[in-house]
Structure formats: C-alpha cells, structure tokens
Amino acid sequence: MVSKISQNTDPFSLAKELSGFHLIDGEMVRAASGKTFDVVNPATGEKVGEAAAGDAADVDRAATAAARAQKAWKAMPARERGKLVAECGRRLTERVEELGRLVALETGKALRTESRVEASVLADAFIFYGGLASELKGESVPFNPDMLTVTVREPIGVVGAIIPWNVPLMLMALKIAPAIVAGNTVVVKSAEEAPLTVLRVCQIMNEVLPPGVFNILSGFGPECGAPLVSHPAVNKITFTGSVETGKIVSKAAADKLIPVTLELGGKSPMIVFADADLERAVAGAVAGVRFTRQGQSCTASSRIYVHADIHDEFVAKLKAKADAMKMGDPLDEATDIGTIISRDQLEKVQGYIQKGIDAGGTANACSALPEDPALKKGLFIQPVIFTDISADAPPSREEIFGPVTCVFKFTDYEEVLAAANDSVFGLAATVWTNDLKTAMDATRRLEAGFVQVNQNLVVQPNLSYGGIKQSGLGKEASLEAMLEHFTHKKTIIFNMK
C-alpha cells in the first residue's frame, strides 16, 4: 500500500494544514460547535495553528463511530489486525522526521535529543504490538475429565484514551497499539497543549485502518475529557496525567463499573553508593533528570541520594555536564535543551524553585538561557540542582514536572532506603553500585514499579511499565498490558458426556 498523504517536513505549514480538525470515523471534521483554540510554539510564544475544541457532541459522534466499527474489527482474525497495525508502524517509521519536527514545534522539546527519538519509539511500538497479535490466546483448564474447559481472550469494546503533553506520541502509542491489536476500537482525547502531531499520526494510520477504529479528538478536560469517560459506549479508560485528575477519572469510571488504567506520575529516587562508577552515575543522572526534556517526565530522577564519600564530586560533575548543554530553538540540531510546555507550567516550576530557596536550599542553576532575540518570549528556564535542602521542602516531596532535582547526602544504608521509600509515589527508581548483594537487596526493597541498576532508560516497548501507590494502576508497554488491560477472559465449558 502506498500512502496518499504526502510528507511535509515543514512543521509550520503542517500545523496550519492540520488546524481545526478532529478525526472521526475516518474523516477530518470540524468541531460540532465550530470552536477552536490556539496552538502556540513555546519557544517563541507565537501562534502556529488551531485545534478543534471538542465537546460532548463530538465525543458522542466519535464513540458511536467506534462502537459501530468495533463489531467488524473484533471479528477480524487477530493476525490480520496485527498486520494492519504493523503496517501503520512501517508508515510511521517513514515519517519520523516529519513527526519529530512537528512535535518539537508544539511541545518545545529539542528535535535532536528528544522529539526525533520519540517519533521513532512511536513507530516501534506499533510494529512491536502488531507482532503480538498471535499471543491473544486462552488456556485449557483441567477442571473435569468429562468436560472440555477452555478460556478465550475477547476485546473489551470501545477504549477511551486520555493522553498527556510531555511525550504525546509515545504514550498514545503505548495505549492504542495494544488496544486495537486486541480487537478494541479507540477514541483518543489529546492534550490541549499538544494536539497536532497526534492528529497527524491518526490521519496516517487511518489510511490503513478501517474507519472508526482509531478516532481522535482535541479539547479541554471538562468539556471533552469528562464526556468521553462518562459516555455509555466507552467500555474502558486509559489515562496518563496528574494524580488529581486521575482520581476524578477513576471515580467517573467507577460509577460506570468499567476498568481503568492510570499512570499518574512520580518522585523517582536515584541512589548512588560509594562504590559506583562515578562517571557512569553522573551520565545516568543527566539522563535520569531528563534535562533534555526540561524535566517534564514522570520518571525523572528528582531525588538523588549520593553517598557522602562522593557527594561533592558527584554534584560538581553533574553541574558541569548540565552547564555544557545548550539551550535554544527546539528545531535547531545544535540544541540540547528546549522549553517548558506552557506559561502556567513555567510559573509552577519557578514557584517550586523559590519554595526551595525559601526553605534554605542552595539552588545551583545550570546551562544558560538562549541569547537569540527571536527566542526572548520563549518558555525557557535554567535547570536547577538543589543541594543542602530539607527532605521536607516542597521540591523534595512534590512532583514538579520541571528541570529541578534535589541531591541529598547519605551514609547509612537503611536510612537511605527509608528516605527513598518515603513518598506517596512509587513509579520508578534507580540504584548505582558495583556490589551485586547491595543491588539485589535494594531493588527488592525499593517501593517502585520500574527499578533499574546502573542505567536510567526511558520507557520502551517490551519493558513492562507502571507504578504503585499514587503513581497509578496497571501496566503499559508489554504483552501483559495488552492481555490484562485490553481484553477480558471468558470461560467456556463443553460437557462431553
């Protein structure tokens, strides 16, 4: 199959081309109300496009189309669905540059270090899940010799997916790829800060998928997200976002008695023991704090515990690494660090930095703001490494979602584990040591759903991902996620007498 949609690697013209549309039942359509809202380039403050402002009428149209399409989609052999999803992945692979440049424009994430990489992971996720279609199988149960007892996996129905703005491509893929391979149809509500690139993905995929299988809406939470969760045709919700909104979504889903998957954020600890490879640990911290993404990551290493013997050297090296990173135009190949997503988020981060200073912490600012006059209105901020800060200070305990990390000094093993676990979150953690016994014990005792030793990888397909405590419910990115969260198990018994 040859794509009919021509590639467009000019993100500015592509943003205008996509402006003002949802994609429902295979068609690019305007909002029922005719309303739109602005899409702004956070690097310059300039409007680059518009998004359709969805409401309950748009949700009803999309959910109805998805329910209608699901009847035929679930009846298609699983491997045939998998082939179509894998073909979507192949086409998205060909569009990595186009998608990477557009997501850099609307989110402010640097193209070279972040956005192009995210577009590649997006494509890989669809190829990965397309290949898992044959794993949608049940079991034979040795219940009674005179009865043939089997289980089968069946799709849930229509899945409503609400995605965030920080990595919209990857997190959308990890929700909808397993859902549609399993035989569900989906309605996605995009983040209002980043609605255009995900719409382009949907447009490309709708060349391959039957109409109604993948629908996407843009809009705000109360007007568009809430009606999606409560719509009677929606049988499952998968959500990534804040704890506060996640609780609202969970309560609404509970009223309907439908399953929900929640990924709600974290305050992820990084523990560096005295025997760790210092250079490797510092590089891991640079990756872990997500400096290149301006710290806008739920797995960001925002609490770093370093043994007293190496603490000062670690901090000096970490600051030097961050200082060497260039902040600038996200579309410039020389840029390492882009912008914060929005004015509100920038002010939130600035507020937390001030709270840390007021609490007695030392704020070590890193890198340098861009000097280009064209970027003077951009939402740039210097990353901050806090030292000498109390464990009870707001930056130490609350999720900031910005380029701020707190470095603590420790000497006692039991005390550092207790400190690392002293959080309402439990998403991710890393341990840095060359002692196998320490690594084995620490990973067993750390209260987190995604724990790594001597590395700090981001989420990728085939790595089961999800948290505990207030970091959420359920898993993503794996075969387990597809089976447990996008199918239900039916037991069938044949009486053989």
Automatic annotation (TrEMBL):
Protein name according to UniProt: Sulfoacetaldehyde dehydrogenase
Family, as annotated: Belongs to the aldehyde dehydrogenase family.
PANTHER family: ALDEHYDE DEHYDROGENASE-RELATED
Ranges for domain Aldehyde dehydrogenase: 31-492
Record flagged with keyword Translocase: no
Pfam family, one: Aldedh
Entry keyword set: Oxidoreductase
An MF annotation (GO) of this entry: oxidoreductase activity, acting on the aldehyde or oxo group of donors, NAD or NADP as acceptor
Active site: E263
